[in-house]
Amino acid sequence: MDLPKDFLVKMKDLLKDEYEEFYKSYHEPKKQGLRVNTLKVSIDEFLEKSPFTLEKIPWVKEGFFYNDEERPGKHPYHEAGLYYIQEPSAMAVGELLDAKPGEKVLDLCAAPGGKTTHIAARMNQEGFLLANEIHPARAKILSQNIERMGIKIAIVTNETPARLAERFPTYFDRILVDAPCSGEGMFRKDPNACAEWSLENVALCASRQIDILAHAATMLKPGGRLVYSTCTFSPEENEGVISQFLKEDTRFTIESVIAYEGFRKGQKDWIVEAASDIDKTFRLWPHKLQGEGHYVAVLTKIDGEVVDRRKFAEVLKDQKVLKDYTQFAKETFINPPKGNFILFGDQLYLVPDGMLTLKNLKVLRPGLHLGTKKKNRFEPSHALALALKEDEVIHTWNAGKDSDEIKSYLRGELLAGKGPKGWYLVEVDGFSIGWGKLAGDVLKNHYPKGLRWAGK
Ligand SMILES: C[S@@+](CC[C@H](N)C(=O)[O-])C[C@H]1O[C@@H](n2cnc3c(N)ncnc32)[C@H](O)[C@@H]1O
């Protein structure tokens, strides 16, 4: 691997005696991780059913190292959202944000959704999670991952931090800024990060991060928690950004949270004018633990005014519009999902309680997508299938993870079978994976075309 020369010179100067050990880590194989999605399966049940060789990641209860040759990214359990493949160090961030059920949480730089999906699992389908991504194509991928993981309480926007700050002042209990950074900690995992690196870009990233943090600060309630994280080593970002932010916004302090084994302290002497408690922030080093490079700071807003200029979302009360959905719900659910309805064009969504209006914001997903209102009928969405559990629906169609039937379903083929006609929640080993519609001894396949597996 060709590491940038200026980067190596800088790291040698910073790390001194530790540099050789750090440099050697680039010749070690990177560790792969998966995080169990506790919205769909408990950790114990997953371990019992998983076909993979797993080893516990010490700093996150849902995290496991896996063996790359076993390819968990191409498995029916992956399509059913039982786990998310995530770099092991990155899992520390969701752990330290520590979101709770019922809270209002913002993930400001969220795509592709590793941390969003972790936060959502911790919230256990209660509360309100706004996942935002500034780049439109990346926002789509974020939205797809939220769907696969069966998350009901997330809204996905494609906005700038500034525009969200105007709409959501002092609204959130917790905010994550997983900042766009110079990516030095990802050189082993992603050679592109290496090619794009320069000293100028480090400076540019630092000033962008200050700007993003200032908007995040506006959106946090007094008493709320703000987590800033990067996947870079550069002190101009990391300790430098946090020190400058705390100097400019005196309502915040660095929280003391427990350090897991292998986490190192933030470096006071690597920057000028370091914040007094900067050593309470964390560095994750590839030569000190089995993961890539990361930095995490946990901040609390100890003070500040509450700004209340909120306008709530208008929810649908017109039962006539809901007629086809109500019919579908009667034929399909034992327990229909609860919440408030909103209609975006012909798309019906269920939105979390207390949601503010999203008018004039770029919204990809205003809540749980229930489905499409067609002429005289309702067609359920893939997102709904993935968010449902088998005891919530009348008809299920279960196939084993190693069966030909599940592979056939994932390829989009028709399945043969008998039963009452209607919508069936298709499952792999009892975990929802999509819809099928049975009529005349044939289950018509509703697995989305864009997700279908190729080949035999
Ligand atoms: C480190 S990545 C986020 C990774 C994500 N949190 C995860 O765990 O999957 C940073 C994200 O910030 C976005 N970004 C870039 N410039 C931004 C800006 N000015 N404001 C907000 N987000 C930005 C990038 O598009 C990128 O998706």
TrEMBL record:
Domain of life: Bacteria
GO terms for biological process, alphabetical: RNA methylation; RNA processing
Residue ranges of domain SAM-dependent MTase RsmB/NOP-type in the record: 22-302
InterPro entries with a match to the protein in the record: Methyltr_RsmF_N, MeTrfase_RsmB-F_NOP2_cat, MeTrfase_RsmB-F_NOP2_dom, Nol1_Nop2_Fmu_2, Nop2p, RCMT, RsmB/NOL1/NOP2-like_CS, RsmF_methylt_CI
UniProt keywords, alphabetically: Cytoplasm, Methyltransferase, RNA-binding, S-adenosyl-L-methionine, Transferase
GO molecular function, one term: RNA binding
SUPFAM superfamilies on file: S-adenosyl-L-methionine-dependent methyltransferases
Active site: 231
Sequence positions that bind S-adenosyl-L-methionine: 109-115, 133, 178
Family, as annotated: Belongs to the class I-like SAM-binding methyltransferase superfamily. RsmB/NOP family.
Protein name per Swiss-Prot or TrEMBL: RsmB/NOP family class I SAM-dependent RNA methyltransferase
Source species of the chain: Lederbergia citri
